[in-house]
Automatic annotation (TrEMBL):
<dbReference type="InterPro" id="IPR001732">
    <property type="entry name" value="UDP-Glc/GDP-Man_DH_N"/>
</dbReference>
<protein>
    <recommendedName>
        <fullName>UDP-glucose 6-dehydrogenase</fullName>
        <ecNumber>1.1.1.22</ecNumber>
    </recommendedName>
</protein>
<dbReference type="Pfam" id="PF03721">
    <property type="entry name" value="UDPG_MGDP_dh_N"/>
</dbReference>
<dbReference type="InterPro" id="IPR017476">
    <property type="entry name" value="UDP-Glc/GDP-Man"/>
</dbReference>
<dbReference type="Pfam" id="PF03720">
    <property type="entry name" value="UDPG_MGDP_dh_C"/>
</dbReference>
<comment type="similarity">
    <text>Belongs to the UDP-glucose/GDP-mannose dehydrogenase family.</text>
</comment>
<dbReference type="InterPro" id="IPR036291">
    <property type="entry name" value="NAD(P)-bd_dom_sf"/>
</dbReference>
<dbReference type="InterPro" id="IPR008927">
    <property type="entry name" value="6-PGluconate_DH-like_C_sf"/>
</dbReference>
<dbReference type="GO" id="GO:0016491">
    <property type="term" value="F:oxidoreductase activity"/>
</dbReference>
<dbReference type="InterPro" id="IPR028357">
    <property type="entry name" value="UDPglc_DH_bac"/>
</dbReference>
<keyword id="KW-0520">NAD</keyword>
<dbReference type="InterPro" id="IPR014026">
    <property type="entry name" value="UDP-Glc/GDP-Man_DH_dimer"/>
</dbReference>
<dbReference type="InterPro" id="IPR036220">
    <property type="entry name" value="UDP-Glc/GDP-Man_DH_C_sf"/>
</dbReference>
<feature type="domain" description="UDP-glucose/GDP-mannose dehydrogenase C-terminal">
    <location>
        <begin position="314"/>
        <end position="415"/>
    </location>
</feature>
<keyword id="KW-0560">Oxidoreductase</keyword>
<comment type="pathway">
    <text>Nucleotide-sugar biosynthesis; UDP-alpha-D-glucuronate biosynthesis; UDP-alpha-D-glucuronate from UDP-alpha-D-glucose: step 1/1.</text>
</comment>
<dbReference type="Pfam" id="PF00984">
    <property type="entry name" value="UDPG_MGDP_dh"/>
</dbReference>
Length: 434
């Protein structure tokens, strides 16, 4: 078992640190936010992620998991240092690498023994070579530091499960020895390891996210055509997915992809390609389709209620997907803003994300304590996130509306059941019930 430091306790860093401690390594997570570090030392997770808090508490108790704000302390004795700080999107869509570069300098200043530096942050192709140069140029002691790329493929909401059940772990390294050590560290996860060069590993991350985003935009386009032809996109996706070359995952039509990864990484890859004078036309289309898709829900609502002024609209679900409180790039940001601008009274409900939502959404938004309260007396209900609590709601809850009109951006309900319950229902790429 190894002594490991993880720099950055955002979503990727924290899950990485906690799961590495779970398989027996001694892990110190480093973050500059003192308040956050104090909470984490008590076993409190700063993000909502099923299973994470329990696993944190267990490993803190076993003295395998530590949190600190002091780099020196974290790097002391660390054989391996993971970089997991953010790479936020710049105005032009490119990734801002200031945090990563600062960590490289901190590592160079503080390491006292030969170390492997593993980059988990999603960084443009060529960045790991740059990290290696920064470290080499700034090394305070005469030690050897080997930089490797180990991109992250976890999904929010199922990150702990994914750590132990992932499809692959990608390791990009110039040194066979370093790659073997990273492979050995990860062995207890029981996930296959794919070893390659550094640049290819960096590209695998972007290409994977871009491909998944492409699948989503593709099925969303098909859904828009299905609506016009009276076909059912769910049946189409099921029929397509039976072909193993296509696969049945990530073919759910909806209101477009959101979150902290797909929107950022697709735009960054367009930039990366542009930097080497390549016009990534397909991916530009994927991004454009995604923006269009978010607006279609409001268009459907306006077809039914052309004047939204003074209309009470229930919004069910605010997070970018279920099982997370993450609001980054959620469709709800665009949808609620448009509703309020059109003069509607918007009453929103989300099982987990409301606290985060209140910090960023328009102050005019009202919040309800449940689906029932949100739809009560409303003129229309919009479904933005497919939470189980929304999917499994008793359909007679919609009797509380002035007139039962449901516009569903996530295909949560069965068309037959909506018909039986006499609810006017418009979903994505499926026949409407009027
Ligand atoms: C995504 C990838 O799935 C992970 O493999 C990757 O590690 C992660 O980005 C990252 O780069 O860190 P995540 O953003 O957590 O994970 O969420 P996903 O479950 O992939 O969903 C992304 C968005 O696509 C959501 O808004 C979701 O509603 C939407 N989506 C997903 C669809 O509209 N249709 C689908 O069929 C699947």
């Amino acid at each position: 078992m190894r002594t490991i430091a993880v720099v950055g306790t955002g979503y990727v860093g924290l899950v990485t640190g906690v799961s590495l401690s779970e398989i027996g390594h001694t892990v110190t997570c480093i973050d500059i936010d003192e308040e956050k570090v104090k909470r984490m030392q008590q076993g409190e997770s700063p993000i909502y992620e099923p299973g994470l808090s329990d696993m944190m508490s267990k490993n803190i108790e076993k003295k395998r998991l530590f949190f600190t704000t002091v780099h020196e302390e974290g790097f002391k004795n660390a054989e391996v240092i993971y970089i997991a700080v953010g790479t936020p999107e710049r105005e032009d869509g490119s990734a801002n690498l200031a945090f990563v570069e600062q960590v490289a300098k901190d590592i160079a200043a503080n390491v006292t023994q030969d170390t492997i530096v593993v980059t988990k942050s999603t960084v443009p192709v060529g960045t790991n070579d740059r990290i290696q140069s920064i470290i080499n140029e700034n090394l305070a002691k005469n030690v050897k530091v080997e930089v490797a790329s180990n991109p992250e493929f976890l999904k929010e909401g199922s990150a702990i499960y994914d750590s132990f059940n992932g499809d692959r772990i990608v390791v990009g390294s110039n040194s066979e020895e370093a790659a073997n050590i990273i492979e050995e560290i990860n062995k207890p996860f029981g996930v296959p390891v794919f070893k390659t060069g550094i640049k290819s590993a960096e590209m695998i991350k972007y290409a994977s996210n871009a491909f998944l985003a492409t699948k989503i935009s593709f099925i969303n386009e098909i859904s828009n055509i299905c609506e016009r032809l009276d076909a059912n996109v769910e049946d189409v996706a099921n029929g397509m997915g039976m072909d193993k070359r296509i696969g049945d995952k990530f073919l759910n039509a909806g209101i477009g992809y959101g979150g902290s990864c797909f929107p950022k990484d697709t735009k960054a890859l367009i930039q990366i390609a542009g930097n080497v004078k390549y016009d990534f036309e397909l991916l530009k289309g994927v991004v454009k389709v995604n923006q269009k898709q978010q607006g279609l829900l409001i268009e459907k609502l306006k077809e039914r209620l052309p004047d939204l002024k003074g209309k009470r609209i229930a919004v069910l679900g605010l997070a970018f997907k279920p099982n997370t409180d993450d609001m980054r790039e959620a469709a709800s940001l665009v949808v609620t803003e448009e509703l309020i601008n059109a003069g509607a009274d918007v009453v929103a409900y989300d099982p987990i994300a409301m606290e985060n939502a209140k910090k960023i959404l328009n102050d005019e938004l009202q919040y309800a304590n449940g689906v029932e309260e949100a739809v009560n007396g409303s003129d229309a209900a919009l479904v933005l996130t497919e939470w189980d609590e929304v999917k499994n709601v008793e359909l007679d809850v919609f009797d509380r509306m002035a007139y039962p009109l449901v516009i569903d951006g996530r295909n949560c309900f069965s068309i037959e059941e909506m018909k039986e319950n006499r609810i006017e229902y418009h979903s994505v790429g499926r026949p409407s019930v009027s």
